[in-house]
């Protein structure tokens, strides 16, 4: 292989897995464009880096940057950009709010939203499934989770897009104004939610977070706010793409669709294989705190590094015939949700959304056919369809 690979080149976006395979074979640790990031591509190396937060620090996560024009960044204190002991303190405080009782409480709400969304999908005519299904379900669930009124749920995606654009540090004045407006609007709505739950506690996540105590400590208002911002970003785009990949695989594989329609208990197994085969989070960032040697290659101290989950999940050394979709694979693979101390807090919720959403889709429709070209989003860290034209066919 000669020259740096550009992970945002259109041909790589369409199928990054062929490039990842080349990298694993010939340059398992190297620098790529854009940005000159170092990438780690082999499964065992990716897992080892996730397990070593002392050497691979989360303080490099771009969400934590503070552009001067903004004055502050609501993500700056969020746990995903922190290392122990600051991370440990925050994680201990929020962990319980995501435990099995909280999840059980949410299940009915997820079903409620999914039923209404699936019932609205038109039958037998072209529709963008991102608009009709993959976006509204996670937007409603995240909106509900952070305590927003249902009328505000449809704004969550725009807020999340604007909030993540902070890290790109746009030079365009108009774009900065839009982002600033979104930050103020989101902060105002979340401040309302916090004030309301303080006055009238409910059985919900925000109340649990307000009441959380570990060793006599609680979350400060700034920490609560940045955690809610983090949920909005971490829980939305990722789950949208998981659902998008599920629908795409169902369109491409009639045999798999037939098995799932005949037996809904196979849906969780299907979702696991989609998470392996098309992980929505393809890469997560770290910063080396000292020189690191990985697969014999020296990465200097202070280098931005991407742990390529997308590549690790296709590594034949861990998953035989890794480029093949096979929902009968044995064993659990949690890597799509990271590994170690920053392991995704929302993994059970994302799995639940996919299970319930698919159960309802497959109960109402017999098959799904492409109605036009799929458009990929433009990012190499989070991958999925931005536009997904589909015709959903009811039972004939
Ligand atoms: C962290 C993936 C859904 C909340 C992570 C990480 C990954 C990930 C890879 C690890 C980051 C790191 O190592 O630094 C995903 C995927 C999802 C998903 C693929 C959907 C398919 C969600 C949802 C929520 C959520 C639904 C919340 C409702 C979080 C939070 C963290 C996180 C708060 C940070 C944890 C920490 O820093 O300790 N996620 N996520 N995620 N995720 Fe998710």
Task: Explain what you see.
- The protein has 396 residues and is an alpha+beta fold.
- The protein has a single domain (10-393), classed as Cytochrome p450.
- It has 16 helices and 12 strands.
- The chain has a 5-stranded mixed beta sheet. A 3-stranded antiparallel beta sheet has the order 4-12-9.
- Strand 10 and strand 11 form a beta hairpin.
- The longest helix is centred in the middle third of the chain and has 27 residues, at 173-199.
- It is globular.
- The model has no long low-confidence stretch (mean pLDDT 92).
- Bound molecules: protoporphyrin IX containing FE.
- Protoporphyrin IX containing FE binds next to helix 11, helix 12 and helix 16.
Task: Give the structure's gist in a few sentences.
It holds the Pfam family p450. The chain has 396 residues and is an alpha+beta fold. The chain is 48% helix and 11% strand.
State the main characteristics.
Cytochrome p450; 5-stranded mixed sheet; 12 strands; globular; binds protoporphyrin IX containing FE; metal-binding; heme binding
In spatial order, strands of the major sheet run 1-2-8-5-3
How many structural domains are formed by the residues? 1
User: Strand count, sense and closure of the main sheet?
Assistant: 5 strands, mixed
Residue-averaged pLDDT, rounded?
Answer: 92
Share in β-strands: 5-15%
Poorly predicted regions are none
The residue fraction in helices comes out at 40-55%
Q: Which structural class should the secondary elements be placed in?
A: alpha+beta
Global Rg: 21 Å
CATH superfamily heading: Cytochrome P450
Tally of helical runs: 16
Count of DSSP strands: 12
In the CATH hierarchy, the third-tier topology is known as Cytochrome p450
- Report the principal-axis shape: globular
Bound heterogens, unique: protoporphyrin IX containing FE
**Termini gap:** 51 Å
Q: What is the H/E string?
A: HHEEHEHHEHHHHHHHHHEEEEHHEEEE
CATH architecture: Orthogonal Bundle
CATH classification, class level: Mainly Alpha
GO molecular function: heme binding; iron ion binding; monooxygenase activity; oxidoreductase activity, acting on paired donors, with incorporation or reduction of molecular oxygen
Family: Belongs to the cytochrome P450 family.
Organism: Cystobacter ferrugineus
Keywords: Heme, Iron, Metal-binding, Monooxygenase, Oxidoreductase
